[in-house]
Every structure is written in structure tokens, then in C-alpha cells.
């Protein structure tokens, strides 16, 4: 599966499809696609034992593609030109669990909070997620989803861990070419995930010019302050503050972007909050509240 972002064409090839299956598949698929209003056109070609699809995505429709484990997943959502579009990026997923201490696993926590956040924000904004279930998305693809859909805001959701079990609290990061030693360590760890799974973070370049970089940073800091204050107050967690660092996932997005570390899975107090569905919902509510305040200021 591949796509041409400029022409909004999606190409899919399916192998090992016999004639009977092809006839039934193509007839039903064409009816489903043409009746969906999500595509302007569909072309289906058969050659030997494979079938290729060319899909023309309709205007004002956002899309995310995933092709892993012999499964093709294509998520589409109609958007309104009058609404801001927000990308929610639950970190890690699939073969990458993220930070984990026993049954407290980052990829599960951030997907839950990200899903609650999507439901909250969808009341007022257009929202897409880089992943909405337990699958792996390479680091370099995450900011691309925001850029190709011209998102106003990119929110990456994570949970932290430390050897020191007393380390605790919620922290929010924004993209900066300069960082404190602490923030640099956090960014280096998150960036190393790409290397671990064969996707170098070095290829994620800063695409905004200096003026846009400074404006995006200013906006990101303002949003980050709202988020960390609101979560810490509502959940009675330590306010770990706002930090700038060279996060690849934020570096590659052309706009306002933040990375939220919801708490430490390695700390017993934070972990109890992180795995509790009621607390996850509250976190999402506070992030959504902060975003509304930021976008409607």
C-alpha cells in the first residue's frame, strides 16, 4: 500500500486472489467505496492472481494508512473546513511497549488516554489519531500524518520511567534545538525508539523556517503550560514543568506541537493514577480543556 499525498491517490495491491473471490470482492468493494462519499473515484485492475486498487480520496477527508502483519488498515474521516484539525499521537504501540513496569505498560496507557482525548475533542474539532489500536507506527510517519492533513496541532502522548522510583509527576515538552541535560536525556530516549526498530530519527528534519520555528515554539510553550498545570491540579500530581528538547516527532511537524509525559510508570503513586480508567478520563478532559483554551483564545 502506498499513497501520493499531492494527488491524494492511494494504491493498494492484493495478491493470491482467485477468480471467484475477485468477482465478489470487486463488486462489493466498488459499491461500498462509491457509496461512501469518502472517495471521488476507484479503479480496480486484475492481473493473473492479484488485484490492484487506485483510490482517489475526496476533498476534506483525512486518512491514515497502516499495512502490517498481512493486514491493510485504512482509516478515513470527513473533516469540516470551519474546524481546526488536531492530531493525537499515542506513543509506541504493537511490538514497541514503551516504558513498562510489570502490568503498567506505556503503550496501553497512552492509547486509552488518547482515545478519551479524541472523544472529548471531537465535540468541537476535527481529530485524527496516528494509531487507534495496538499497532506500531514508525517514528518518521507520525509527524507526516499531521503535515499531510494540514493539522493545526500535534499532541504526542507518552508516559515516563526512571531508575529512581521516587521520580514522579507530569511533564510537557516542546520542540527546541536547545535543551537542558534532563530534557535532552528524555528526548534522546524517545528518539532512540526509531533506531531500535530500523527508522533513524536523523532523517526527520526540521521543515519550518526560523520565523515559523520561533512562532511554533512560542505557541507550543503557551499550550504546554496550560496542559501541565491543568493535569497536575486535577489529578493531584507533581507539576514537573515545561521543557524544550529536540524530539524528532515534534521536529518533523510544521506547527504547534507538544509531547506529554503523563507520569512515571516506575513510581507507585503515578502508576496507580496512570492505569485507572477514571483518572485517564480526567487527564483527557484536562488536555482537551487546555486545547480549547489555546485554540479559542
UniProtKB/TrEMBL annotation:
Coiled coil: none annotated. Residues 143-292 form the MurNAc-LAA domain. GO terms for biological process: peptidoglycan catabolic process. InterPro entries: MurNAc-LAA_cat, N-acetylmuramoyl_amidase_3. One of its GO terms (cellular component) is outer membrane-bounded periplasmic space. It is an enzyme of class 3 (hydrolase). Its EC number is 3.5.1.28. Keywords: Hydrolase. GO terms for molecular function: N-acetylmuramoyl-L-alanine amidase activity. PANTHER family: N-ACETYLMURAMOYL-L-ALANINE AMIDASE, N-ACETYLMURAMOYL-L-ALANINE AMIDASE AMIC. This is N-acetylmuramoyl-L-alanine amidase. It comes from Fusobacterium nucleatum subsp. nucleatum (strain ATCC 23726 / VPI 4351).
Amino acid at each position: 500500500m502506498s499513497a501520493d499525498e499531492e494527488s491524494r491517490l492511494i494504491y493498494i495491491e492484493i495478491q493470491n486472489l482467485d477468480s471467484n473471490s475477485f468477482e465478489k470482492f470487486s463488486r462489493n468493494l466498488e459499491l461500498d467505496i462509491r457509496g461512501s462519499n469518502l472517495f471521488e473515484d476507484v479503479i480496480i485492475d486484475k492481473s493473473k492472481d492479484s488485484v490492484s486498487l487506485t483510490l482517489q480520496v475526496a476533498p476534506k477527508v483525512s486518512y491514515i494508512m497502516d499495512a502490517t502483519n498481512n493486514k491493510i488498515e485504512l482509516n478515513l474521516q470527513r473533516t469540516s473546513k470551519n474546524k481546526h484539525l488536531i492530531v493525537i499521537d499515542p506513543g509506541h504501540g504493537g511490538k514497541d511497549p514503551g516504558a513498562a513496569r510489570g502490568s503498567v505498560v506505556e503503550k496501553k496507557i497512552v492509547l486509552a488516554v488518547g482515545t478519551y482525548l479524541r472523544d472529548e475533542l471531537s465535540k468541537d474539532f476535527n481529530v485524527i489519531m496516528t494509531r487507534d489500536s495496538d499497532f506500531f507506527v514508525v517514528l518518521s510517519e507520525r509527524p507526516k500524518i499531521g503535515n499531510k492533513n494540514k493539522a493545526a496541532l500535534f499532541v504526542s502522548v507518552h508516559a515516563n520511567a526512571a531508575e529512581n522510583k521516587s521520580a514522579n509527576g507530569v511533564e510537557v515538552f516542546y520542540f527546541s534545538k536547545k535543551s537542558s541535560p534532563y530534557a535532552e536525556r528524555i528526548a534522546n530516549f524517545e528518539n532512540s525508539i526509531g533506531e531500535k526498530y530500523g527508522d533513524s530519527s536523523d532523517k526527520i528534519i526540521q521543515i519550518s523556517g526560523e520565523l515559523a520555528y520561533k512562532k511554533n515554539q512560542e505557541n507550543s510553550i503557551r499550550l504546554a503550560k496550560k496542559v501541565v498545570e491543568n493535569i497536575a491540579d486535577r489529578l493531584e500530581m507533581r507539576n514537573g514543568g515545561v521543557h524544550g528538547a529536540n524530539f524528532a516527532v515534534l521536529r518533523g511537524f510544521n506547527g504547534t506541537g507538544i509531547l506529554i509525559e503523563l507520569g512515571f510508570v516506575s513510581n507507585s503513586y503515578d502508576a496507580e493514577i496512570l492505569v485507572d480508567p477514571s483518572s485517564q478520563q480526567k487527564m483527557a478532559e484536562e488536555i482537551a480543556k487546555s486545547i480549547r483554551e489555546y485554540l479559542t483564545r
